[in-house]
Amino acid sequence: MDVRLNDILLMKKAHPCGEKRWRVLRTGADFRLKCLGCGHEVMTPRFKAEKNIRKIEREASTETNGS
């Protein structure tokens, strides 16, 4: 699964605050995620997070050609 920094992950289960959307702060073997409802940050193993992702929201790329 292609998860990048600053992606918004819509999870299957809601956080106790009621929000289902999380921002990706770190990728690798573990993900560092920040709840968009209350701001709580968690580290979770990649396989566990990927299993619970319903949708990945990615902002439009603003890359330029570099010319």
Describe this structure in words.
The chain has about 70 residues and is mostly beta strands. It has one domain (about 10-55). Helix content is about 10%, strand content about 40%. The chain contains one helix and five strands. It has one helix spanning about 45-50; strands at about 10, 20-25, 30-35, 40-45, 55. A five-stranded antiparallel sheet has the order 4-3-2-1-5. The chain is globular, with a radius of gyration of 13 Å.
Number of helices: 1
Residue share in β-strands? 35-45%
Element pattern in H and E: EEEEHE
Number of domain units: 1
Spans of 5+ residues with little confidence (pLDDT < 50)?
none
**Which class of secondary structure composition applies to the elements?**
mainly beta
> Which strands sit side by side, in order, in the main sheet?
4-3-2-1-5
How would the global form be characterised? globular
Concise synopsis of the structure shown:
With 67 residues, the protein is mostly beta strands.
Note the main attributes of this structure.
mainly beta, globular, 1 helix
Write the SSE topology.
Elements: E1 8-11, E2 21-26, E3 30-35, E4 41-45, H1 46-51, E5 53-57
